[in-house]
Amino acid sequence: MGGTDAKDILGLPRKTPLSLTQEKRSRPRKESHRKPDGISREVAWQWLPVKSSARSDDLQLFHWVRVVNDVPPSGDYSIQQSVDVLKYTDDEYENHLTDPVWTKEETDQLFELCERFDLRFTVIADRFPLSRTLEELKDRYYSGFV
Domains in the chain, start-ordered, CATH in brackets? Predict the structure, then answer.
């Protein structure tokens, strides 16, 4: 067998990783990724405190923030937004929300869970006391807006 090795059998090139690296360096760089002349943009990431208007307490949170030209982003950082869930009176329920498949008590439970869990229907479906599918819960909630 003499000088035959795995590279010969598999038909792989005999170039070493060092020679492949040198080939890559000798290729001309693409100019399309360059910034236009006169534009300087320094981007860094910093671990900074953030405030969120979605929280009612004074919890101090930290977050990796992208800082461009030494200027951190301003404004509110909202991890999670609260939602306003539809509220209804007994008269409004009777006139607009009655459904032959849903009782008022079931609808009340659904809307309470929607408010409590900010319309995260996967969580709501897990907590809903009756056997209803995720699609049924969403359909009932959103049918109140039609």
Answer: 40-82 (no CATH), 90-143 (1.10.10.60)
